[in-house]
Automatic annotation (TrEMBL):
InterPro entries: Haem_Oase, Haem_Oase-like, Haem_Oase-like_multi-hlx. The lineage of its organism: Bacteria, Pseudomonadati, Pseudomonadota, Alphaproteobacteria, Hyphomicrobiales. The keyword ATP-binding does not apply. This is Biliverdin-producing heme oxygenase. Residues 1-13 have a biased composition (Basic and acidic residues). Residues 1-31 are annotated as: Disordered.
Length: 259
């Protein structure tokens, strides 16, 4: 792909997202309606168009199509590490706060798992520290930290977006990474939830907790809006990682076949 094509594709992406942001599909229901349909269902509904975009964005699209590289994936992880640190710091701070306390789940915290993955992928702690935090990763982590201010309920939108994603499509991504980049288990801790028997039952329980949270705040609509923001921050990060890592691995010349 030429630079012009890449720019035009990104413009299309931005235009499509603007369309969806203003369209009825992503209109945020009012608090009574959210409680009636369930906050978890409402989250799934309002973020569905953004989920489709996220699957096709930058480095995630490359990974799914087997066109990424270890360097790009490592860069993604390093940036997500900052995000999970902010989410988990916020959750700990709010472990006794109404609504948020319902989704404080240390057993699924991911920051330590990601730190281990980055170090294994880099080969040493020093090399891991040299992987840069991109402006988009910094902005995402800052938005999470900001959402933890006050009653912290917007953190629920961030936790939903990342943890349910890791527990769902993340499991497929893990298999793709093993197959296409040869990542062994020590590099895929992000997707391993040791100590949880049955991810489906766990996800159901997590969704039920999210539903209950809507009854402990008068602003469940703010959680929906924050989840939409979280998806957009992910999408921006996925494109930025692809760009910083030099685009899809397929765009770099293949090594010459051995004679
Ligand atoms: C790599 C591409 C991806 C694939 C193939 C994928 C696939 C899926 C699938 C099949 C589900 C449904 C699971 C179920 O109903 O139990 C799901 C759910 C979910 N995914 Fe993804 N996903 C991808 C990327 C992402 C990304 C990048 C994010 C967020 C940044 C994300 C966030 C979520 C969330 C929050 C849910 C839970 C939806 C709900 O039940 O409310 N996914 N994903």
């Amino acid at each position: 792909m030429t630079d012009d094509e890449a720019t035009s594709r990104r413009d299309d992406e931005a235009a499509a997202e603007t369309e969806q942001d203003t369209g009825p599909a992503t209109a945020v229901p009012d608090p009574a309606e959210i409680r009636r349909i369930g906050l978890a269902n409402a989250l799934r509904e309002v973020t569905a168009p953004l989920h489709r975009r996220a699957e096709k964005a930058g480095v995630i699209s490359d990974i799914v199509r087997g066109r990424s590289s270890r360097a790009a994936y490592t860069l993604l992880l390093r940036n997500l590490h900052a995000v999970y640190e902010a989410i988990e710091r916020g959750l700990e701070r709010h472990r006794d706060t109404p609504a948020v306390r319902l989704i404080v789940r240390p057993e699924i915290y991911r920051a330590d798992a990601i730190a281990r993955d980055v170090e294994t992928l880099c080969g040493s702690a020093a090399a891991a520290r040299a992987v840069p935090l991109l402006p988009e990763g910094r902005a995402y982590a800052a938005a999470v930290a900001e959402s933890a201010e006050g009653d912290g309920i917007r953190l629920i939108g961030h936790a939903y977006t990342r943890y349910l994603g890791d527990l769902s499509g993340g499991q497929t991504v893990s298999q793709v990474l093993a197959k296409t980049l040869g990542l062994d288990v020590g590099m895929r801790n992000l997707y391993r939830f040791a100590g949880i028997d049955g991810l489906e039952a766990y996800k159901d329980d997590y969704r039920a907790a999210i539903d209950r949270a809507a009854f402990e705040t008068d602003r469940p609509d703010a959680i929906l809006a924050e989840a939409m923001l979280a998806f957009r921050l992910n999408i921006a990060l996925f494109w930025a990682v692809q760009e910083a890592a030099g685009g899809a691995a397929a765009r770099t010349p293949e090594p010459a076949p051995a004679e």
